[in-house]
Amino acid sequence: MTAVADRPKPFVFPEYCKGCGRCIGACPKHCITLGTEINPVTGLTPILLDLTACNGCGLCITACPEPFGLRPQGEEMEFELLDPAKVLGDRPYDAPVPEDIPDRMIPLPAMAPLVTKGTYASAIGALLAGCRHVYGYPITPSTEGAELMAKVLPKLDGIFVQAMSEVATVNIMYGAGGAGLRCMTFTSSPGFSLMLEGISYMVGSEVPAVFVNVMRGGPGLGNIAPEQADIKLACRGLGHGNTQAIVLAPATPQEMLDLTILAFDLAFKYRNPVVILGDGYLGQMTGKVRLPREMKQPGIPEWAVYGDRSHRGNLICSISLSEADLEQHNIHLNAKYARMIAAEQRADPYRCDDA
After folding, report:
1. Which residues pair with 161 in a beta bridge?
2. Residue 346 C-beta-side C-alpha neighbours within 13 Å
3. How many CB atoms lie within 10 A of CB 155?
4. Is 72 helix (H, G, I), strand (E, B) or coil?
5. N or C: less crowded end of the chain, CB within 10 Å?
6. What is the DSSP letter of 165?
7. Of 174, 188, 62, 70, whose CA–CA distance to 118 is shortest?
């Protein structure tokens, strides 16, 4: 039988301790207490050891659910925290510096004005902005925009996919936008709510896309009549965490076209989703729309995960397991939001002095 003096006493790896407290209940000598300081690497509070009365029974080590949370003393030097990025060694290829393939403007011939409804005007604006990737799920009163894209895009070497749901839609957009492609969706209020998790992922990963929300009444399924109740959601509650986006609110079919073109430019300027808020009236009513004199042929940005050799070394991700890393990322995002607010305000207040 091993003498008490020869039994190894425990030590704790703070990086692996969750502070669950199982070891506290297992210790018969009351040598373990809950910690009081957060570990900056994990954001959790590891336990504290006072080994004065410890007899090395090992019950705390057995109780620990983490393989390396508590270990016997003497194993300290046998374990090394490894950087996952270095475990497999060097990459099997030399990733070159990513290239930025610039956009190109193509002149258009002079054309007579169109008389078209708001959803169509937005779809036409997206085509002129270089969007050839549209994903969506039908929902009244936005469906006509997706229907027009489904008819037109195959003839323009583009892609329209009717996804299984709004959740599937936004995650397909995450992939397309991450590849540096101009993509968009048409949806309405309940569908937009379902997309919020994916929008938050895209904001965190700095992936551009355009969301056209033709608002309808709520709460819940509500009805299909026009509403403007999503303005607070889009401007003040867009997903969990530190999530913000530029919101454009057109008032006419002409603005639906113009602001959709602008939305793509802003999305790629800031690497961030942009939301266009119309409503059922604007989506369905017709008006005169003048087309611009040029359209955009988009390039491939240097940050894109495009899959070719030039962009192969890129990575897009919205998770930062280190609290310190996430803090720095949010500081970066907040600085970007501040630039948006300073440079992109387009509101035209009318008699709002006392608002």
Report:
1. 135
2. 13
3. 7
4. strand
5. N
6. S
7. 188
Q: By the 8 A CB rule, do 123 and 149 touch? A: yes
The candidate with the shortest Cα–Cα distance to 24, out of 52, 48, 57, 3, is 48
* Total residues belonging to the chain: 355
User: What pLDDT sits at residue 146?
Assistant: 96
Domains and CATH numbers, the chain: 4-81 (3.30.70.20), 105-298+307-337 (3.40.50.970)
Question: How many angstroms separate the Cα of 333 from the Cα of each of 170, 211, 299, 340?
Answer: 21, 20, 25, 11
What secondary structure letter does DSSP report for 216? B
Give the burial string for 249-258 (b: 16+ CB within 10 Å, else e). bbebbbbbbb
Number of CB atoms found within 10 A of residue 43's CB: 13
pTM summary value: 0.79
Question: Cα–Cα distance between 168 and 97 in angstroms, integer?
Answer: 33
Nearest partner of 305 among 206, 208, 179, judged by Cα = 179
The amino acid that residue 318 corresponds to is S
Are the beta carbons of 134 and 143 closer than 8 angstroms?
no
Burial classification of residue 147, based on how many CB atoms lie within 10 Å of its CB (0-12 exposed, 13-18 middle, 19 or more buried): middle
User: Do strands 294-297 and 104-107 pair parallel, antiparallel, or not at all (unpaired)?
Assistant: antiparallel
The distance of Cα 268 from the centroid of its chain, to the nearest Å, equals: 14
- CA 22 centroid distance within chain: 36
**Tens-digit pLDDT profile for residues 131-176:** 999 999 999 999 999 999 999 999 999 999 999 999 999 999 999 9
Task: Annotate 171-197 with three-state secondary structure.
Answer: HHHHHHHHCCCCEEEEECHHHHHHCHH
